[in-house]
Amino acid sequence: MRPAQASKSSPSVALLVPERAAFPGRFQPFHVGHYRTVRRYRREYDLVVAIGSPQKARTPRNPLTAAEREHVVRECFPDLDLVRVSDEDRGEAGYPDWGRRLVARTDADVVITGNETVANIVREHTDARVEAQRMHEPGRYSGTEIRRRIREGEPWRDLVPDCCEDRVATYAPVIAEAGENAE
């Protein structure tokens, strides 16, 4: 918890509000692992989801636009705070800027991630704390696996939450087409 500013009506009363936490990811597409993470951490924090690589779309690894990814997430969490955090394809040289941009755009005290590179960037280049994401069957719930299954015509619906399954299905042709030059 972090202290809130005292109100004008009660200047001496200190209120505690939940810390702000950012959960960054590309969400290509949003899956059951992401869903469980959001559901869990929004009980503990004032959670914001940071959509990474928003400028990338219609590629094998990033088939969906940022707006499409936001639509999918909103099917499950209509009131969730979402922001876009771009990267600049500068490799390691861009890491410090990206880390600072992530924390600035989300106003995060904490960054929740299961990605060791992201964790290191946040630790080395920001004042935010890192909380290790509890992964939910990462071998199964993976955007790469869902995209592969869609492209190969294999069952994939059990890997996305029921709340957004229909929305992901509307984007399945886009995912399949973007993957013609496979990952």
List keywords for this structure.
183 residues; alpha/beta; two-stranded antiparallel ribbon; 16% strand
Describe the 3D structure:
38% of the residues lie in helices and 16% in strands. It contains six helices and seven strands. It is globular. It starts with a strand and ends in a 5-residue tail after the last helix.
The stretches of 5 or more residues where confidence is low (pLDDT under 50) are none
* Principal-axis shape: globular
| Largest sheet geometry | 5 strands, parallel
Q: Strand tally, please? A: 7
Terminal Cα separation, in Å?
Answer: 42 Å
Q: Please estimate the helix content.
A: 25-40%
Percentage of β-strand residues = 15-25%
SSE arrangement, N to C = EEEHEHEHEHEHH
What is the CA-atom radius of gyration, in angstroms?
A: 18 Å
Q: Would you tell me the structural class of the helices and strands? A: alpha/beta
Largest beta sheet: strand ordering: 5-4-3-6-7
Figure out the total of helices: 6
* Mean of residue pLDDT values: 91
